[in-house]
Write a structure and sequence with these properties.
single chain, 314 residues, Spore Coat Polysaccharide Biosynthesis Protein SpsA, Chain A, 2 domains, nine-stranded mixed β-sheet, two-stranded antiparallel ribbon, 22% strand, globular, binds 1-O-phosphono-alpha-D-glucopyranose
Amino acid sequence: MSTGRPTKAVIPVAGLGTRFLPATKATPKEMLPVVDKPAIQYVVEEAVQAGLTDVLMVTGRNKRPLEDHFDRNIELELSLEAKGDQERLDRIHASTDLANIHYVRQGDPLGLGHAVLVAEQHVGREAFAVLLGDDLIDERDPLLARMLEVQAQRGGSVVALMEVPQQQIHLYGCAAATATDDDDVVRVTGLVEKPPADEAPSNLAVIGRYVLSPTVFDVLHETPPGRAGEIQLTDALQTLATMPADDGGGVSGVVFRGRRYDTGDRAGYLKAVVRIASDRADLGPEFVEWLGQFVAELKQAANGSSSTGGRVNP
Ligand code: G1P
C-alpha cells in the first residue's frame, strides 16, 4: 500500500437531481449555475486547491454536459479570440485546464458506497478523497487540506463532521465520537446513516468530504445494502471504525466550523447563490446594496399587510 500523499479525488455525480425538476430533466444538477459557474466547478476547484489534481467523476446517463464543461470548446474559443475577448477566454480556459479529469459510469445506481466502489480500479491501493457535489465549502475555510493533514498524521480514514440542530440529524450520516488532543479532531467510534433524532448518537453530521483508506474497497465489497436498499458508504465507515489500524481501519473526524453551502435542495441552493454573489468582488457591492433595499421593502410590505389585516375596504 502506498503511504505517499493522496493525489486522487473521486466525485460521485450519478444522482438524478429530482429535487430540481424540471430544471434537471435534461441538465445535470451539478451543472446548475451558482452565480456564473456550475456547482461542480467549485467542487473540482476545491480538490485542486487541496493538491488533488487527478479527479475521477463517477457519472451516469445524461451526464455528458459535465464532460463537455471540462473539455475544450474550440468554436467558442475561436469566436472569443476573433473578438479579442481575453477575459472571457481566460474564464473558459480555467475550467478546461483545471485538473486531469477522468470519467467512469456507475451503471446501476446502487448507492454512494457503490459509486465509491466503481472508483476502485482507478484509485488503486492508495488513500483518496471523496467529494460530494451537494456540499460547497467556502474556499476561505479549507477543510479538505486539514483532512489530508489529519490522515497523514493518524492514518486510517477521515470524515468531515459538522454540528447540526438535532432535528436535522436524520438528513445525514451521524457519528459517535470521542475527543482527541486536537480541538478540531475526534476519534469516530461509530457511524449510522440518517438515524431518527431520538436514536442519533450525537448531533455530529457527516458532510460530504471524506479521505479514505483503500481498505474501504475491501469493506464495501462485503457491505450489504443498508438504508433505502442502497450500499451505504456510512455502513462501510462504521466497519472501518471498528477495525484495527494495522488492518487499514480507524476513522477520525475533522469538526468543521467554517462556511458550508448546501446546494442539494432548492432553498439551500438559493441561499448559496445569494451568499456567494454577495461575497464576489465584481458583483457583491452592487448586489448587496440592492439586497438590503429589497429586504427592507419586503419587511415594509409585511408590516403594512399585518396592520391592515382584517380591515374592511372603505
Ligand atoms: C450522503 C451520505 C450521508 C451524508 C450526506 C452529506 O447522503 O449518505 O451520510 O451525511 O451525503 O451531504 P445524501 O445527502 O447523498 O442522501
